[in-house]
Amino acid sequence: MKLSDYESQPENLDAVFAALADPTRRSILARLATGEASVGELAEPFEISQPAISKHLKVLERAGLIEREIDRQRRPARLNAAPMQAAIGWLEEFRRFWSSSFDELDGLLEELKQAEPKGAADE
Amino acid sequence: MKLSDYESQPENLDAVFAALADPTRRSILARLATGEASVGELAEPFEISQPAISKHLKVLERAGLIEREIDRQRRPARLNAAPMQAAIGWLEEFRRFWSSSFDELDGLLEELKQAEPKGAADE
DNA sequence: CAGTTTCATAACTCAATGGTTATATAAATT
DNA sequence: AATTTATATAACCATTGAGTTATGAAACTG
């Protein structure tokens, strides 16, 4: 799979990365990784309002990262991994694509900055 | 490293994920993975204006994903992998943390990490 | 039935994004 | 010196994002 192939679902990739770009949402996802939780349970650790949490859940849902259920008057959220796969896939592919300098990154960058003023990395 | 540890640099993680949430910027990064490029070269494949590209580069620079150089009147951009590692780290840690439901994804990642039939990279 | 719990939705504010065009700056070219 | 090239910056516009408070709708409880 090529990098450009991941762009064949750009909207989903956009939505997933955008969803991950917020610390509250990442925290919610981490919480959901331990099991499904109601809106109230998800809101509890934060100081923001319940509607704000509901909005975050909508963002996560639109990205496909969670699914909502109905349990009486509760609307618990459950994690869905599939869309995360797109993000991981893109990043892993990117890393492989740029393999030459990715692994020993820090060391190489230091070398580049000091030993080689003009960035001829791996061409 | 735990998931919560990645939240110790939330701003950077925020900026990196946000930077990756735009297809133009992902495309720019893919282009830069093949080597540094000037603003004009980066703008060429797109139909948007040059200032728009400069703005995207600023976003990428703020996220630490690129560095700018000065070569006469050109300001070529060069990839910087370090912040991307933070994003990969968070996602991989998340995957590990939620390993039980990530089995299918593990398979996909193995695929990705292994065979590369065609040497062709990307746009 | 009346009240409470759980959650969603609406309406609003404020800041940030992503785009534009127009202009400025600095180096290269003629 | 004048012009062209490469890029940045400013000013503006429309849209989105993240938050708020207020209110509504179900479902549960007494």
UniProtKB/TrEMBL annotation, chains A, B:
**Stored InterPro entries:** ArsR-like_HTH (IPR011991), HTH_ArsR_DNA-bd_dom (IPR001845), WH-like_DNA-bd_sf (IPR036388), WH_DNA-bd_sf (IPR036390)
Name the domain of life: Bacteria
Q: Which positions fall inside the HTH arsR-type domain? A: 5-99
For this entry, the protein name equals Metalloregulator ArsR/SmtB family transcription factor
Q: Which organism is it from?
A: Hoeflea poritis
Species classification:
Bacteria, Pseudomonadati, Pseudomonadota, Alphaproteobacteria, Hyphomicrobiales
